[in-house]
Amino acid sequence: MKFSVGLEYALHCLLYMVDLPEGYSVGVRELAHYQGVSETYLAKFFTKLRKAGIVKAAPGVNGGYELALAPQDITFWHVVEAIEGKTPLFQCDEIRQRELLLDQDNLPDAYTKCPCLIHTVMNEAEDRMRQYLNEKTLAWLHGQTMTKIPQDHRKAMQDWFIKE
Amino acid sequence: MKFSVGLEYALHCLLYMVDLPEGYSVGVRELAHYQGVSETYLAKFFTKLRKAGIVKAAPGVNGGYELALAPQDITFWHVVEAIEGKTPLFQCDEIRQRELLLDQDNLPDAYTKCPCLIHTVMNEAEDRMRQYLNEKTLAWLHGQTMTKIPQDHRKAMQDWFIKE
Ligand code: FES
Ligand code: FES
């Protein structure tokens, strides 16, 4: 079980977008060029981010994307769901219903219909991860990153995106 | 990103094994038959559980498997790692090192060598899930399940495995 590499690109792209001055949209082509990755590759993830309501197509002839929500309203979990999909990590196939002796014993619903505890535990484990990722917003990520990034590098990066 | 169906089978198999009277080993063939699944399919997961030190080959001509640890020492997380592997959920490819302007700016190590915060957040999210799953042992699962399972069904199941 692994997260896809697309998630890493999606999160980094969104971080660049948060750092651009308000009102600037950015093209997938520029984001791809800046990160040394192919535009087609990145475009797939932007389609997912758009469908999830995290980015939106910018108006105007130049196109590109802008954030569809404020950075404090976009969490890591939103991005994970957008890229990886919404199905739970653990897919219970109700394998216990195929137990050999199940029909023969006339079992009460309390045993066969209640949620399987293995399933419940796995779902709760995912909840822990979800809760944590839902606390981490893009605004927080941006704030933290800005304390580390040298100001001239940040300026150079912004200028590059704005010029492109 | 998904857990494999093998994980569901592995956890259910281990639960059957915990419920057998001490000293009984169980064959993959019986576990497969009982659950209505192919033996070859299940055998793959038992190889993984054995490599992870969760089960061991039972001595004697009849073979089969028995638990290699006490049920209170086997956690859900052990089983997840055995079946899904030990690599972290989120694989950071250090994509930030390929940023276009990175060389040109002579950036300090504090920026380029410190762990990427996106990576850190994703690892901590997995930690939350791991912590939770490490608290849940097979002994606990067994205890909880035994309060729900009708006693005659449990007895019939044990008898079936012991007879086989
Ligand atoms: S039946 Fe699916 S986890 Fe138990
Ligand atoms: S470089 Fe891998 S998550 Fe940032």
Automatic annotation (TrEMBL), chains A, B:
Descriptive protein name: Rrf2 family transcriptional regulator
Organism per entry: Megasphaera hominis
Signal peptide from the UniProt entry: none
InterPro entries referenced in this protein's UniProt entry, alphabetically: TR_Rrf2-type_CS, Tscrpt_reg_Rrf2, WH-like_DNA-bd_sf, WH_DNA-bd_sf
Pfam families in alphabetical order: Rrf2
